[in-house]
Amino acid sequence: MHCGYSGIDQSLSLRLSFFTPTEKETFLEPFVLKNLLPSTLGSYYRYTGSLTTPPCSKVVEWIVFSRPIYVSYKQLEAFYSIFTTEQQDHVKSVEYLRSNFRPIQSLDHRLVYKSAVRDAWLPELSDHSGPLGTEASKVHMS
């Protein structure tokens, strides 16, 4: 799966490509990731972190919402089905998609940013841009 930034319309889009067992590549039309989320997200935290699986490289920009975004069982099963292959007389599921987390790690001098509605900040309080209509400010964590 590949995620990319679309500079044309200033939105984040997702281009998915999956390999079938015959090694043919399938491309889906790009779509705006934000359209998959509820219209009101509330506040969130953002930081540069690492992958959840070895080698746990620090290459991920994590966004953690203050309130959970729920998905239905049907939506979750549809997502898992994308990564499931049928092999002769059984179905093989990609198990690394389940329980792919690790224990809480130290901040390791990372900066954590908290979102806020843009109008709520004085200009000097936020120097980092966030998603449309918000700005992020540094959060002091111990």
From TrEMBL:
Record field: transmembrane: none
SMART domains (UniProt xref): Carb_anhydrase
Taxonomic superkingdom: Eukaryota
Residues in the signal sequence: none
Cellular component terms per the entry's GO annotation: plasma membrane
Coiled-coil segments on the chain, per record: none
Molecular function as annotated in GO: carbonate dehydratase activity; zinc ion binding
InterPro entries linked to this entry: CA_dom (IPR001148), CA_dom_sf (IPR036398), Carbonic_anhydrase_a-class (IPR023561)
Pfam family membership, one: Carb_anhydrase
Protein family per UniProt: Belongs to the alpha-carbonic anhydrase family.
Protein name as catalogued: Alpha-carbonic anhydrase domain-containing protein
Native organism taxonomy: Eukaryota, Metazoa, Chordata, Craniata, Vertebrata
